[in-house]
Amino acid sequence: MATRIQRLAEFDGNGEPSPEEAVQVLCEDKSGTYQLPFACRRINGEWRNSESGSLVEAMVVGWRRPRGT
Q1: Which residues, given as ranges, of the chain have pLDDT below 70?
Q2: Are 27 and 60 in contact (CB under 8 A)?
Q3: How far apart are CA 8 and CA 31, in angstroms?
């Protein structure tokens, strides 16, 4: 199992992605860190599901561009 520090190092996006860019996000709660199973966009200071537009109600601690792009 990856440690928190290892997971954070994998999600090393700097600043904020543009609203047009769908990215992978890493979230954290009292149980640990986890990657959301869907792409997200950062729009007007909020993380949203890229497909549905729904607000992400988890604490996002990191982001990265999808692998292979």
Answers
A1: 1, 68-69
A2: yes
A3: 15
pTM of the entire predicted model: 0.88
Give per-residue pLDDT as tens, 30-43: 999 999 999 999 99
Q: Amino acid identity, residue 45?
A: G
CA-nearest of 13, 56, 55, 60 to 33 is: 60
Phi–psi pair at 6, nearest 5 degrees: -65, -45
The residues facing 43 across adjacent strands are 46
Radius of gyration from C-alpha coordinates of the chain: 11
> Where in the chain are the domains?
4-64
66: three-class secondary structure by DSSP:
coil
